[in-house]
Every structure is written in C-alpha cells, then in structure tokens.
Write a structure and sequence with these properties.
- By secondary structure, the chain is α/β, with parallel strands linked by helices.
- It has a single domain, classed as SPOUT methyltransferase, trefoil knot domain (Alpha/beta knot, 3-Layer(aba) Sandwich), CATH 3.40.1280.
- The chain is 42% helix and 22% strand.
- Strands 2-1-4-3-5 form a five-stranded parallel beta sheet.
- The protein is globular, with a radius of gyration of 15 Å.
- It starts with a strand and ends in a 6-residue tail after the last helix.
Amino acid sequence: MKLRLISVGKDRSGLYQPAVEEYAKRLGRYLKFELVELPEARRHAGTPQARVEEGASILAKLKPGERVVALDERGKELTSVELARAVEGWMAGGRDVALVIGGSDGLAPEVVARAQEKLALSRFTMAHRLARLVLVEQLYRALTIVRGEPYHK
C-alpha cells in the first residue's frame, strides 16, 4: 500500500515544514509515503473560485482505484488508537490511500464527494499547514500503535 498526503499550499513561514519532513521520513520506514504539495489559488484567494481551482488540482492528482480520505471539519473525529485501526484496515485492503487537505478556503465539494471517508483532526479551526503536521504525526503514531512500538503512550 502506498499512502499519499495531497495538500494545498506550502509552509512559507518555515515553522512546520521541518517537522513534516521528519515525520514523512519516519513514515517511510513502515510504508511507501509521498507528500504532494499543490499551489494555492493565490489570484482568487478568499473567493469561491479558489476552492474550485484548488479542487481541480487535487482531483487531477487522484489516481483511479485510490481510496480517498478528505480532511474536513465535518468529518469523523478519531482517537489515535481508532486512527491506527483505520490505517490497519486500509493496509489490509491493499488499495493505495490518498489523504487530502485543502487550502485555507477548504475543500471543493467535488473533492469531498470523491472521498470514501471524511476525517476531522479536531473541532478546532487550524491553519491548513498546521493540519498537515498534525496529520503526519498522527499517521506515524498510528503505525507505531499497529506495530506495538512504544512511541504512543
């Protein structure tokens, strides 16, 4: 199974990217992991058109047969252990999985409709760049839980 994180926007602040890269490297010990960063629709930022443009970019990156998991505030909230069980199920299913994080304007409805699952990281609103970091850390934690390793306490 290959796990991909498709997200909109880059960390121009430099705060999150080193940690995202560290967890991405750690994830690579357990499975094939790819981080796909797509550009924000800057020209239309803050308008519905931004979500449309970013949504089209996301949909173009999704592969046929790939399980799509949208990170959405209306999605299901899981504990770390529940996420580990979900990841374990994805692995057992044998299909590649793409987790999708939209830009600051959220995900286009077409992307959410393409998803087989919707997950929420928190009921808090958070910067999408921070959401990317939280997600890769939780994916790493999930895989250590699946393997029975001591990272999760």
